[in-house]
Write a structure and sequence with these properties.
12-stranded antiparallel beta sheet; 3 domains; 2 helices; 32 strands; mainly beta; single chain; Tick-borne Encephalitis virus Glycoprotein, domain 1; 14% helix
């Protein structure tokens, strides 16, 4: 009978721990990336009464309960944060604490400090890959701190390639207004200054033939003439309106611009007359002459406007000239037995002695989940279930407290027997 004291007290301690777990779950109801903990009770070894053959067994109560973290998928909701991200599927963001410890987290609400380091809200550094000196994000290297180019000025890129998709009117007559067509295209020099090239097509007296010339304003090259020609030639089409000369083998028209008045380097530009599939970009059909698309690979100098985290963990930098480029990638780590991880606070976990080694790599590879940009994974706490558990644990505590009272009354009766 007197073992009932320790039995009931063990139950009181276990149910008290269970209430603490429920309270912690409810406290983190709105914590991004939080995973619910559940309580698992276990009984203590029993004693056999009588001959010891197990006819009568009396337990010694319940031991300290186990708490198991359930790493189920939380709800993913859109967020207004540019650097917010959520993991859809298995995996953890890899972060490094101020003490240098490698930690894991599912909370993707990140920020950038004054040095450009991507951080969690508690100051831990997000791990992944950053572009090197050549502007390449090499994901074959070891992971490290992600550093974004905060407040930097992007150097200009001189134009080396341009293209024009257009149609020349097959019904045009040489020597008439319809027989001449011009279209401008803007290029960029090594100093970031822009220049407008004018491409003029003139219908030749020879059937299915057009002459072209490319000119630049004379002032741009220090000339007194209104314009200076920088390229010229002829285009020939077959009876189906398909470009035949220049042929695919000689697809590039060389445009050379020397002596720029602003001191920029000379420009050597290739005008590509064919697309990636080797189909002509210029046709001659009986339709009005018109340009459908222009392209060139130059870019003016630009300042950084914002940095954002896109899908697949790509860190994108957007510049004032409208260009975007990938400046980093966020790494994901997968753990075969995530329930063995130890919570260390601030939404972070660390590996325990029972944890498998983290497998770190790109999102959506090797069984790792996807990274959804502009979103956050919310807590997996089910408030209805937690309140139900709270009531059950409360009733369990009350029931075992009644056992203590009953055993106390019985012990008093036993003591009174000697009187």
């Amino acid at each position: 009978m007197f073992t009932s004291f320790s039995t009931a007290l063990s139950a009181l301690s276990a149910h008290s721990t269970a209430v603490d777990v429920v309270g912690n779950n409810l406290a983190n109801l709105n914590t991004p990336g939080y995973k619910t903990s559940v309580v698992s009770f276990r009984d203590l070894v029993t004693q056999s009464l009588g001959a010891g053959l197990g006819e009568t067994q009396v337990g010694f109560g319940t031991g300290r309960p186990f708490t198991v973290r359930q790493f189920s998928q939380g709800a993913i909701q859109s967020s207004s944060g540019l650097l917010d991200a959520a993991v859809q599927g298995d995996g953890f963001f890899v972060i490094r604490s101020a003490a240098g410890a490698q930690l894991l987290t599912r909370a993707g609400n990140f920020q950038v400090d004054t040095s450009g380091h991507m951080l969690t809200l508690t100051g831990d550094r997000v791990q992944g890959w950053t572009e090197d000196a050549n502007g390449v994000v090499d994901t074959n290297r070891a992971i490290g701190d992600i550093v974004v180019p905060v407040g930097t000025l992007q150097a200009p890129i001189a134009t080396t390639m341009l293209s024009m998709d257009l149609n020349l009117n097959a019904a045009a007559v040489a020597g008439t207004i319809d027989g001449t067509f011009s279209s401008p295209i803007e290029i960029v020099d090594s100093l970031g200054a822009t220049h407008v090239l004018t491409v003029t097509f003139v219908k030749s007296a020879t059937a299915n033939t057009w002459d072209y010339s490319v000119t630049i304003p004379g002032a741009d090259v220090g000339s007194a003439n209104p314009t200076e020609e920088v390229a010229s030639g002829s285009l020939e089409f077959d009876s189906n309106g398909k470009l035949t000369t220049p042929a695919v083998a000689a697809r590039m028209v060389d445009i050379t611009i020397t002596g720029l008045a602003n001191g920029a380097s000379d420009l050597d530009i290739d005008w590509d007359l064919y697309n990636a599939a080797s189909a002509p970009r210029i046709t001659q059909y009986t339709q009005p002459s018109a340009v459908s698309a222009n392209a060139q690979d130059g870019a003016t100098a630009a300042s950084l406007i914002r940095v954002g985290l896109a899908d697949d963990g790509k860190v994108l930098a957007q510049y004032s000239n409208g260009q975007q480029r990938v400046v980093g990638r966020v790494a994901l780590a997968s753990i075969r037995n995530p329930e063995s991880l130890i919570a260390v606070g601030n939404n972070a976990f660390q590996c325990s002695a029972r944890s498998a080694l983290p497998a770190i790599g790109l999102p959506d590879t090797g069984g790792r989940g996807k990274i959804i940009g502009g979103a956050l994974e919310y807590s997996t706490v089910d408030i209805a279930r937690e309140f139900t558990n709270l009531i059950v644990y409360q009733r369990g505590y009350q029931a075992n407290s009644r056992v203590v009272v009953a055993v106390d009354e019985l012990s008093q009766e036993t003591i009174n027997l000697k009187r």
